[in-house]
User: Fold this.
Amino acid sequence: MAVSDRFVLLGEPNNSDRGQWVGVTSVYDARNGRYLRSLQAEDGDTFDFFGVSTSICGPLGVVGATGGDGVQANSGAVYGFDLRNGRQAFKLFADDGLSGDGFGRSVSISGNLLLVGAPNHDSTGAAYVFDLHTGQQIAKLISPDGPSNDDFGYSVSLCGSVALVGAPNRSAAYVYDVESETLVRKLTASDGTNSDDFGWSVSLHGGTAIVGAPEHNSGRGAVYVFDPGVGGSEIGKLTDPEAETGDNLGYGVSHQGNLVLAGAYHANPLGGNSGLAVLFDAVTKTVVRRLTASDGGAGDQFGRSVALYQNQAVVGADSDDDLASGAGAAYYIRPVSGPFPLATLAKTRDFAPGTVGADFRTFLDSVISPAGDSAFCGRLFGPGAGRGTAAKGLWRDIGGGVDLVGRGGTEIFGGAMVNRVSNPLFNRSSFLLFEGTLKGPGIDRNNDAVICSYDLTVVRDVMQENQTDALFDGAHLDRFLDVAQSHTDDLADFAPAFRYKNQPGRVSRASDTGVLMADDDGTIRKVFHEGYPVNTIGGGTLWGQFAPRVTKTMDTSFFVASLSGVGVTSRLDSILCEWTPGDTNETILARVGDELDISANLFYQRFLGETSSITGGCFHRALVSGPSVNRSNNDALVIDGFALARKGNAINFLQPQVKLHRFLKFWGASNSRFFYLAKLRGPGVSGRNDCVLIMHDTINLTSRILMREGETVCGSDGVTVRSILRVDVNPTTGSYVVLASLTGSPISNLGLFTGQTVEGDNNTRFALRKPALKLRKGTQFQAPSGESTRIRGLSLIDTCDRYGAGGKGGPQVVGENGEVIACVLFTNRAKELVSGKP
Assistant:
């Protein structure tokens, strides 16, 4: 059986209306449960068992017939139907099928790909992948463990280009990248035995693999939860504490988000073998609800098959005898829901910790630390909220407790008073930075701007407007233009780009900008300022105007400045530099007019933005010039002198006419992995599919698309990505998060995706790096107070600077292990700031 937002598809493989066990499949309306039509194979014959398996993606339904005729009689076939009208669209079978292969025993659709299991093929089983656009068989997956009657392919599930194939006789399930036909993981139970039938049922969705083992623990059964992307680790085991011997929990499994539905068709809640289905929360590993048939009885075998879509469950009872002995029935149960999978940090209209008589009105500037701790600004209302800057504060959550860091009117270490808080940076788990202003005796508009630190104990003023230092040569700070915080605990922990105060005879508009590097206690390690000599160039060359930006993800800082003085022309007036604690002078990485190291006849014309990664290297965007350069190809993303992406170039040699049109944003994750968001142009490109998120891997010099507008999202409703709205990448591990709008109903047209790039590669295991849908608008959850509510909106802050650079030591909304911080609006009007790993 299968279910989507529009259809319920129920197979009847033993139906004999047209001949003995020819089979039929019925289509129902998922909105009201009304019967719509029957599906029958155009060439149906006896013993076809048409309906033994089903799958849905959008309007397409696929039905397996293990006894259908393929290359040979009774080798098996699958049939595709337009569920809107019942018309047969195709019939597919294996190129090398043999009689008795059982091809079609399991089927799963995702977008334009179809996965079909043939568990009896060649004594061990196989799974076949088809391209539904062409109808061609494009891959054959076989067990890596050799022929041994494994029943490989007895169960299958497909999500995007990742396939999960169960082999219950081997007590294993296998994860494949179907595009390259590469085995990614072999999954086994940590406490399994060969007789557990682990792999009898499988489900793959949202970056999580679910595997049923119905014979585990004397037939009580169990369901195992895996993360197929990071190590293939077993992250949970689901069991029913009320299970009895022979219940066979996990005979059928299906999951969506954090909900797992598992059938136990031999359980006895309403009599012997009446059956039940258990709904689990995969996050807490607890039972949410036990489902039984409202009119069930002994022998019904309720739970023999299960299907779950969003908050809709369908449970089969194949021996129900209401219409006739063993005629069977299916129960459509909605809604089913569980607790929200992320931790709530704060809610609007709830009490704000650390205040008296004040509640949260809204949330701002929410950020996350590498370890998944959080900090956020909030606006207040209520009798104790105060007015103006007092009505905004900064809170942090470390280890599950939200505490006030500071708000207008609170005292900091040393006796000064906070007036305003903003722009928190939490790139070190034990050290929080934020900008703001001070008030109190001796504080006026000439010295109120401040950078504060919070070491989880006290708030300190580490840098203040009007501050002077020996390294400033008598100048005074006036304004902080950009602040970057390192992700590592090194010297020169943070770096501001700044402006000095105008001081006649000392500082003018020709000498007022610079960058500095300082420790977290405010100790200044290095200053570069306009109007002073560039030591590495010498000869009378001076620092000119500094760009109002700085990058720092480790101890090294990167910045851009123009030049003035001797030997400087309009064509040689800007340099990209780095500085590391211990260095006497800056290191010049590139200068306008320099030739890119690898790209012959390509020269720097202007630096447009910079970022870096935890392992070093400055990933930057630049305008380039050269003999063959024009406005259509003069923009490049560069790392170590190599233009890894360039406007006007193709991103895929298979589509040479589809070219990069415009860079939007970019991030670095390591010396080998770089990300960028770009627009495309060329044949077949329109406003519906022109935006792409790309990852470039310098190990094999390949660029691959992680997400593209217009591509199908894994799920039975077949929706596509409409617009990529927000992206953030963690520079340490390459964990990333994407907020995207979706096609389809306005009730469910927004999704939050996460991805990991620490494993896999851009060739044979790229499927591991692609994003998985984690949260979706319209999904219903149970609030702690007991009522149900649905997601109405999702939002992430924009972490990129005005030049498009992200992961540069600025704010982050994704942690090292994939934790995120987001704002969620629910239909009960609650607006919650949430965090955790979805």
User: Anything to note?
Assistant: The helical segments are 216-219.
